[in-house]
Amino acid sequence: MIRGLARSSDRSCLDGNDMLRISLTIAVVCSLSMLARGTLWASDHLLTIGGGPRPESNQISLENNVRYLQRVLERLNISDIHQKILFSDGGDVQTDLQFDAQRDPEDLRMLLADLIGPANGVNFDYRTSLLPVVDGAADPTTIENTLKDFRAQLAGGDRLIVYFTGHGGKARGESSSSRGPFPRSGNEPVMNTPASARPTRMEPSNSSESKSDESSKPEDSAKPEAVVEAETSNKESVSDSSKTGADAEREPRPADRQRPEGGNRKPAFANNIMHLWKSTDMSVTEWTEKLDELSPDVPVVAVMVQCYSGGFGNFIFKKGNPANGLAEHPRCGFFSTVPDRVAAGCTPNINEADYREYSSYFFEALCGESRTGQSVTSPDYDQDGRTSFLEAHAYTVLTARTIDIPVRTTDIFLRHASKTKGQDGLLTPNSPVDELVKHATIVEKSVIEGLSREFLLTGTDRADDVEKAIRQKRDEKARTDSEVRRRRTTVSSIKREIGAAVKKRWPVMASPWHPETARLISEEADAVRQVIVEHPRYAEMKKELATIKQLSKESEQKELDVVKLERLKYWLETVVLSANLKLMEDTANLAALSRIAELESTFLTKTEPVAKPAT
Description:
Residues 538-568 form a coiled coil. The protein has helices at 2-9, 16-36, 60-75, 108-115, 140-153, 209-212, 245-250, 284-291, 358-367, 389-399, 409-417, 433-438, 442-454, 462-505, 515-523, 525-533, 538-583, 587-600; strands at 44-51, 82-87, 97-100, 124-127, 159-169, 273-276, 280-283, 300-304, 331-335, 407-408. It is α/β, with parallel strands linked by helices. Strand 6 (273-276) and strand 7 form a beta hairpin. It starts with a helix and ends in a 15-residue tail after the last helix.
């Protein structure tokens, strides 16, 4: 074929048919070349950014997420993809990673930390990251320089895939983008989720940095009472900190929300941030402005799993702001949760079998293997023999038992472009469900029907079914939480009593830094332990703690049920908004929606996962 082309090029002139044949031949050669690489894109590039802003919030799960992605690439036969990995402090050998030391909860130091204090961080140890290849630190300057390198390498038709596994926060100020990449104060209204979908652990709206930064308190995820504290959990430990029921309803809604023509309230612009190394950060607008420097011919697919990650769905808009309209650059993304909600994950737990977060489900759907090596049936809702990014996202929505309400860029776009009021004939989530699913895609229908089956919801008004189920679950949870609080009060009283007995015997132990305290722990450990474990109320405390643990688990399961119901409501709303956009005959936004949805339905690879050898 190529030799034929060479002969044709030797001719002094070519007629129209010759030129057509040459053009078609070149097109076929290019197409075959792309197919041979297992992708529709000329070349794929991958940027992974991970880690926390400081060692005490740089949990081992973040490192393990990066490792898991590398295994996914290997299983899909694309481990040779051109990629850069930026993680915490880069190649620095200094200690930067936190992990659970798995100490015995009845170790004397653990008991004293719990009974007398302080207990912060007593469970955790630190080491340097052990990732075999790291190309730089996860800080704003390195990210910017890395994107510049990609810009020089990416050609038209190439694709950039971005994975961020770290911590995130709400916007720090309405004009944060004008203050450079390290905004540190102020508040900005954020996109609002429905009243039934309030965050499990909200960031205070007017707090200091130490309180508002969710990544600064990793020990919050492991706060059962001290005797069982060594059993680490992750950020989805909802029973200690969830605001549900009446408490959730008392939370103030953001005040700065605009009402567009048509009557619906538009969600406020969520210029959220990702926390980066050395306590720096980068906002949605700053991130988008850096991506804007790439060629408009380079599609970008993002997977971001930090708290408040849904705010980064705004990168589909010019300069990251919906007010500017859709960007020229083709982009789509999948995010662990909505813009005003914390996400599951980020745990010092070293046991990956316990990980319950977006990456675990999303990547196992793509490659057919869990992070612990178990075989998983990859989703294929449209029966085309492959698993798209969108199908992996839908699988996560259906499967994940987490506090997350995952979102994609079409969700974000529709909540700015469409409406449910202000025009005759528009649908609402309370419209008959049979009518709604007529407008749903195959994937959307699979999610709606799957979640409905899980909770045995069969009513015509499916949104009303969801609201009733949420109220029931929250009422059940509230009763359990009340019992947990009562028992924790009892445990706190017992702890004070036992601690007082220890300090009465050895007054110096009120200070963990007193030299005599160190001597007692080293030389008279048995005597100190005896005062604790032989206290008349020690056995009672352990029994109460076991009951609290069980009740907390029941409460958590109720909360996770509520979250799954909230996901169903969210997807119903998306289907409604998509249908209404068509009814509004908004051709420009329909074309924009189609472009985003098409990119969301692409694949990480067309190569089948590597089959495991028979054992």
